[in-house]
Amino acid sequence: MLTLFHTAPSNRDVFDALLKRLAPDVPVRHIVDEAILREALAAGAVTDVMVARVRETLTPIIDQGSLVLCTCSTIGGLAEQASPHVLRVDRPMAERAVALGKRILVALTLPSTLEPTKMLLFDAARAAGREVQLTELVIDTAWPFFERGDKVGYAQHIARQVEAACATDAVDVVILAQASMHEAEGLCTHLGVPVLSSPRLGLEAALKGYCS
User: What's 91-197's CATH class?
Assistant: First the structure.
């Protein structure tokens, strides 16, 4: 069984829709723990309590032989450290970004996601034998749209900020660091540089691991 571990309930719908298109016959279960993300936002960083809770949640799942896809970029690194049977959703995106170019614009709406994403990109670059230059774009003004359920406004606000950043900074590729940002990808196709989001790339990698 493939297990999807979320810290935002809305990600369940995002990945269910993808699963219907990519692998409707694969058995899947969702686990949602919003408290971990709330703690990360309050602390501004990963805490020992979060580390313990992630391990406590994932260990019995892994012991049952399930492959786990963690859809939260903030705690993705913690989840991966729990077991080689855990994949963070943004790793395939980071690997693709590193392959596409050196100058990477990292767009995010939650500051707690920044350091984990930067560490992931540098790790992917080292593994690929490449160098990267990261430009940070923290769009925290978009998060209130997400919190009140305005997905259209959230995506549009992100897309406008990404467009403005690309107009002032020379970049080779843009990554939308959080799975929640994926709908902005389709609004950025005119920018002339690849814009990547994590849900489809991450799920495709998880399904490949599940089926192998």
Answer: alpha beta
